[in-house]
Amino acid sequence: MAESVEQQLARFATATVLDDDARAMMRLSLYDWTVCALAGQREAVAEILIRKGEMEGGAPQATVIGGVRLPAPRAALINGAISHALDYDDTHFDHIGHTSVAVIPAALTMAQAQGRTMAEFIDAALIGSEAAIRIGTWLGRAHYQVGFHQTATSGAFGAALAGLRLIETTRPKIIAGLGLAASRASGLKCQFGTMGKPLNAGLAAEAGVEAALWAQAGLSAAERGVSGPLGFAATYHGENIGSAFDGMGADWRMKAVSHKFHACCHGLHAMLEALGSLNLTADEVASVKIATHPRWMSVCNNPAPRTGLEAKFSYKQAASMALMGIATGRVAAFDDAVALHPSVSAVAEKVTVVTDDSLTEMQARVTVTLKDGRVKDAFHDLSTTLPHDVLARKLRDKGRMLIGDAAEQVWDAVQGNSLRSYVDVLSETPSTGWEDGVDLIMEVLDYFDV
Amino acid sequence: MAESVEQQLARFATATVLDDDARAMMRLSLYDWTVCALAGQREAVAEILIRKGEMEGGAPQATVIGGVRLPAPRAALINGAISHALDYDDTHFDHIGHTSVAVIPAALTMAQAQGRTMAEFIDAALIGSEAAIRIGTWLGRAHYQVGFHQTATSGAFGAALAGLRLIETTRPKIIAGLGLAASRASGLKCQFGTMGKPLNAGLAAEAGVEAALWAQAGLSAAERGVSGPLGFAATYHGENIGSAFDGMGADWRMKAVSHKFHACCHGLHAMLEALGSLNLTADEVASVKIATHPRWMSVCNNPAPRTGLEAKFSYKQAASMALMGIATGRVAAFDDAVALHPSVSAVAEKVTVVTDDSLTEMQARVTVTLKDGRVKDAFHDLSTTLPHDVLARKLRDKGRMLIGDAAEQVWDAVQGNSLRSYVDVLSETPSTGWEDGVDLIMEVLDYFDV
Question: pTM score, two decimals?
Answer without folding.
Answer: 0.91
